[in-house]
Amino acid sequence: MSEFPTKAKCVVIGAGIVGNCLVGHLAKLGWTDMVQIDKGPLPNPGGSTGHASNFIFPTDHNKEMALLTLASQKQYIEMGMNNTCGGIEVARNPERLEEFNRRMTSAKSWGIDAKLLSPAEVKELVPFINEKIVLGGFYTPSVSCVDSLQTGTLMREGAVKSGNLNVFANTEVLDLEVENGTIKAVVTNKGRIETEYVVVACGVWSPRIAKMAGANIPLTPAVHQMADVGPIDILQKTNAEVAYPIVRDMDTFCYERQTAGSMEVGSYAHRAIFMHPNDIPSNEASALSPTELPLTQDDFDPQMEQAIELMEMLGDAEIKYAINGLLSLTPDAMPVLGETVEVKNLWSAAAVWIKEGPGIAQLVAEWMTYGYPHLCDPHSSDISRFYAHEKTEHHIYARCDEHFNKTYGIVHPREQWATQRNMRRSPFYAREEAAGATFFDARGWERPQWFASNEKLVKKFATACEPRAHEWDARWWSPISNAEHLQMRESVGMVDLTAFNEFDFTGPGAMKFLQYMCVNNVDVEVGRSVYTPLLTPGGGFRGDLTIMRLATDHFRVITGAFDGGRDNYWFKRHMPQDGSVVFTDMSSALCTIGVWGPNAEKTMAKATQNINADGKLVPFDVSQKNFPYGSVREVLIDGVPATMFRISYVGENGWEVYTKMEHGLRMWDSIAKAGEEFGIIPVGMGVYAVTGRIEKGYRLMGAELESEYNPVEAGLARAKVKSAEFIGKAEYLKAREEKPCAVMCTLEMIDNTSKSGIKRFPTGGNEPILTKTGERIVDAKGRVSRVTTAGAAPSLGKYLLLAYLTPEHAVEGNELRVMYMNELFRFVLQELVVNHCSTQPIRV
Amino acid sequence: MTVLAVVEHDRGTITPASFGVLTAARDLAKQMGAKFEALTIGANADGLSEVVSKYGATTIHQAHNSALTDFGPEAWGESIAQLVRKISPSVVIGSGTERGHEIIAQAAARLDLPAAMNCFEFDKEFNGTQPLKVVRARWGGSLMEESQIDAPIKLVTLANHIVEGVEEPASSTVAVLEVELDDSVKQTFVQDRVERVAGVTLATSPVVVSGGRGVGSAEAFAPLEELAGLLNGVVGCSRAVTNNGWRNHTDQVGQTGTRIAPDIYIACGISGAIQHWVGAMASKNILAINIDAQANIVTKAGYAVIGDLHVVVPAISAEIRKRHAK
Amino acid sequence: MNILVCVKRVPAPGARINITSDGQQVDTAFLGFTVSPHEECAVEQAVQLVEKHGGEVTVLTLGPPEAQEQLRTAVSTGAAKAVLVPIDISDYDAQRTAQAIATVIEELEVANGKYDLILFGNESADSCGYQVGIRTALKLGRPIVNGAKGLETENGVATVRRESDAGVEIYILKMPACIGVKEGINLPRYPTMKGRLASKKVEISQSTATGEVGGLKLITLRRPPERASNTKILGNGPEAAPAVVDLLEELGVFK
Fold first, then answer.
1. Which of C16, C27, C90, C131 to mutate to test the interface with B (most CBs of B within 10 A)?
2. What is the pLDDT of chain C when averaged over all its residues?
3. Which stretch of DSSP H or E encloses residue C91?
4. Are B146 and B211 part of one and the same domain?
5. What is the per-residue pLDDT for A842?
6. Which residues of B93-109 are buried (b: 16+ CB within 10 A; e: fewer)?
7. Alpha-carbon span A34 to A31, nearest angstrom
8. What pLDDT, on the 0 to 100 scale, is given for residue A835?
9. Of the CATH numbers 1.10.10.10, 3.30.70.2330, 1.10.630.10, 3.40.50.620, which one belongs to the domain with range C2-206?
10. Could you read off the pLDDT of B209-235 as tens digits, one per residue?
11. B167 and B228 in one domain?
12. How confident is residue B62, by pLDDT bands cut at 50, 70 and 90?
């Protein structure tokens, strides 16, 4: 055993599936001088990896998770640790059969072979199943069981053999030292290691370890119950670790997985049971292991009944082993990855399950090495996505309690959280509530999606506002959105945009700093603005935002609610440390109203004043001539100081109007009053984020814009490139020289009548774009064409999709297919987005 | 004041545990300034007086009854009870063995007195007038209990192997006690004694060669079988192995399998998860053969070989054959 | 044949047993509970005897109300009836326990007739007192032997096999009798899923605990000093074989 080191380049804490694969990947990427420690013994230190069920169902509706899972399975295969057994999700309810159609669609998107089975076909594959209570199955032949402990061991030993890693088990972390906001050292019971990087890959213990450095990894250890029952004759006869397909009994939230002669029955149906990381017993004090806690039997009894119902033979099998197994849950059920926002060079690789472990290790290793991952865009897993209120135990417990039973649930892409609502409200909330707003959650903000007060307009625009016949398509949607859209296009609407984030950068270095961060030239005149992507070092999208120049040394960045946390981190992470730039987060100080439509100018002309050269209050000239597109002006609205930013977001003339939170309500009322004679209405996000946007082909960060794509492909490359250096410039220049292998396009639905005769409206959740013969379209970089956004275009009377297509398919008039709910619908390429919109102010 | 030691014997042969009991009783008697007396049960144990006197008992009570020809827990307990009633000792010490616990419990039940089993320590301040504080074993010795016996007569057993027998001869007198035994206690005598059944089991084998996940397959257990054969031992395994279907559950060492206490436990390719460790920790010696020097079992074992069991185990067998040509 | 098995609810600890800050109990915050292992075997033995000879098994426990979990476990592995003698402290001392149990058994026997066998564990896993069964048997006026590693019944007598240093001893007890059972007598079955579900429906009758506090009083619990482990590495790879055989010889394995 080598001596305990005092210095290292990188210390990885944790030797579960993530820590082990991470050191392996880091070594492969050229990292040297690494140390890995774990409090427990090897090869099973006692964390969740040691008791995991170790199976992989690759299909996921979420692109990031699907790609990570597939990447992981590939690695398990390469290491000879992947035991393909197939897996069947069975339906007991008709609604689940519908969900299987959706899963067939997602499987198609990611190129996963899958098949729908009749009850008899299920029985053929799983002879001991009670097919009488099964309505059908979703069969994935590539479902596999993996040996996560052995995989981890191989990865770890590979790094050791390469001479780049020293491993110390039975080593407890006592403290993490931080100096000037940067990680400095790891203090253990065996000694102190000074180090440049630390990765917390401690699973359920991660929050506890991160806290030692003052960082927050928002997850909670939670119970997943499972029992091993056997021996069972038919399973023993297979003489194999796993011979029969794994069965997921989706409607009871249970699974049955063969483990040699026994069956493992696992459940996600019981109440959510949480544990504090500090309460997890030590290895020594645990009867089994720290994460294998005694089964709370009463919670498991209903699942046993259901399991016996599905497989009668389980009833007479002995319960040999039953645990409350601990795993990690996060408020949004996604992993927590990346550099912590609090401490530089302290990384989190937490809340990861076996199925995605090796892929995530690769992703984090790439991220640490290249400054951004290559495997896929990590935005749904990015630790910096969380706002302060989302990192509290209060929030974690509430949300995890809500989503735990949705582990096998049917979750609509537009589904809203029920808990932790009303966390953040705009000053206009009372008016919106009075107008019958249906609120959607935007990272804590309550935002009106549509207003019941506008229901009368549904009659006015009846032809464009037909209700959707299929409940799934109509869920979390209202025809009122289409009516609001048309009223805004006809006259004027006002939109609550308070959820925006506003970051002020001031100081002598502000301009230079922002030049370095942004693709487009920010050195514009005071009172002007710029739209710009932010790029990763690899030249993909990292952000997408607008910047107003309020003074020579004062810039205001405006970004959306969903990316505010990530953008906040990205800017802060790159800020010069010499004090030349001051960052002020104004998001909670400012509120915003969007005013758009043909009558927006008339409305604002009435509402706006300023003080002229003589010091007199006079109406403000809002004409295009005095106040051109893209410019910013300070005004008074009924005495309230406000900042108007002329910008079109929904393809209508108008402004974003900013004021301080406390003035907000007065400003809302003033604008509403001014617009009254033009029939001004409050307009919800159903227009702002969907219909208004898609009609104009505006791209959205996190949907069309991801780190896998560059501005050329997205049609957002400008004619010229500024001379100043910026992040991703080299790759960006390269991309401009190449012919893009994917192009952003708008597709129009030709026929949305399904086989059942019902008109369908794809929700826009990664549905695959297919050729007329039903083949997937995969570009030269291996990216698949899929729906990034779908929505109605009420002004055009069409239903549109946004998608990246390969150049051969990106031809106007080209007819394609889109799979939705396992059915093919005809679409025609309407236009190349790039042709009509090479700039955009997109924020949601 | 008297301290009474109960001498455990088998058909007249004193058991090793009794020497510790005699020694502890003598020491306690000294501390208290009390008399040290001893009890043998059955005429077949009368011959033990000589050895008992070497430990300094001044009076050796010999319980006699024609029925006391072999061990009988109720009759022995009743014998103790009758002597206790007669001489009212302050403390009665029995041996910390199956028989010792049983007869002290029998006596305590008959006298309706408390009893503390498996004591490690007696209060050094005890002088016979106050309650007796003891430290005794709970949880098979993994926890200690400090408690006090609050009764005029304190019945205890002394945990085995705690006190070494030290002779300190004294002149002793023998007092025969004719005990009265009614029929109710006479049926629980040993009726028959049979030779231990030949052949060892996992639970009783002095050598266990065990394999874990690292063995890799059912077939790969062959070298372990071979080594176990050379050592006249048996093969065990971890839960991972039974879960993989490589071996039967009857071979499983661990919390959910068999708990063993062999002279030597050879753990091959076993990580040493807690549940396995619980089953193996009573082993007198543990030799871990593991590729990973950081494995739990390696850090807990007395001895370890770092290496691949698939090469190490056959090498050990070859070495044994070389030295002990069979 | 009717058999009563007295069982005790005990925690299932790991390698290190933590103690509550007042030193009075094992810290069971994250521990499961189980039937004390000897008694688990006693239940199994009773169930096997009843399977062979007919009759039914009743399980009885004196413990906190939660001990009904252990009664249900016993039912799920074959016991037919369950009796809980609830107490409001964590544990009774041995004298008090025996008094309480004996009183309840007498009451049960008035209603149901005498049990042919009353089985106990040799000693409880937690307090290791080795005496409750013996005290109870005496109060009931029934013979008892401990350490049973074998138990068969025939023609009104119970034959007990018990291991001693000398060999295997045979005891023959006329029933009704009491037996203290030891682990190893059998391999207790695990509950089946069906058994578990059925056990939930069994009504657990309750009896009142009586008995006075006995004379052995707990002062405090503590952990024995921990042994520092010091692994002797005999070598790396096959080259270590001679050292291993040296060790085996030293330990007397080849004698």
1. C131
2. 93
3. none
4. no
5. 43
6. bbbbbbbbbbbbbbbbb
7. 7
8. 47
9. 3.40.50.620
10. 999 988 989 999 999 999 999 999 999
11. no
12. very high
Q: Which residues of C touch B150 (CB under 8 A)?
A: 215-217
- Percent of chain A with pLDDT strictly greater than 70: 98
Question: Which bin fits A45, alpha (ψ -120 to 50), beta or left (φ > 0)?
Answer: alpha
What would the two tokens of residue A165 be?
Answer: 């890693």
> How far apart are the C-alpha atoms of B55 and B27, rounded to whole Å?
10
Structure tokens at A739: 């012919």
* Same domain assignment for residues B307 and B227: yes
| End-to-end Cα, chain A, rounded Å | 54
Domain positions in chain A are 7-189+220-329
Classify residue B200: in a domain, yes or no.
no
* B193–C170 CB contact, under 8 Å: yes
> Among A350, A351, A289, which residue's Cα sits nearest to residue A325?
A289
b/e map A290-325, b = 16+ CB within 10 Å: bbbbbbbbebbeebbbbbbbbbebbbebbbbbbbbb
Residue of A297, A300, A313, A316 for testing the chain C interface, max C β-carbons within 10 Å:
A297
Give me the pLDDT at residue C14, please: 74
pLDDT digits (tens, 9 = 90+) for C154-199: 999 999 999 876 778 999 999 999 999 988 788 889 999 999 999 9
Which amino acid would we find at residue B130?
Answer: Q
The mean pLDDT of chain A is: 95
Report chain B's mean pLDDT, rounded to a whole number.
Answer: 91
Judge contact between C180 and C145, C-beta under 8 A: yes
Identify the helix (H) or strand (E) that includes residue A389: none
- The low-confidence residues of chain A, meaning pLDDT below 70, are 1-2, 832-844
Q: Does the residue B248 lie in any domain?
A: yes
Q: If we measure between CA atoms, which residue out of A499, A516, A478 comes closest to residue A690?
A: A478
Residue A2: predicted pLDDT: 64
Q: Which domain holds residue B19?
A: 2-186
What is the distance between the terminal CA atoms of chain B, rounded to a whole angstrom?
A: 62
* Chain B contact set for C17 (CB, 8 A): 139, 142-143
Q: Residue A266 phi/psi, 5° resolution? A: -120, 155
Q: What is the pLDDT of residue A844?
A: 42
**Residue B29: left (phi > 0), alpha (psi -120 to 50), or beta?**
alpha
Assign B278 a pLDDT band (cuts: 50, 70, 90).
low
Window from C27-36, C100-109, C215-224, C226-235 with minimum mean pLDDT = C226-235
pLDDT in tens, B42-54: 999 999 999 999 9
Give me A390's structure tokens.
């989302």
Global pTM value:
0.89
ipTM of the complex: 0.91
* Partner-chain contact B117 C130, CB within 8 Å: yes
Tokens of C5: 């098995």
CB contact under 8 A, C196 and A286: no
The CATH number of the domain covering residues in A7-189+220-329: 3.30.9.10
Beta-carbon separation of B295 and A241 below 8 A: no
Where in B123-275 does DSSP place strands (E)?
A: 132-138, 143-149, 154-159, 173-178, 192-194, 207-211, 234-237, 264-268
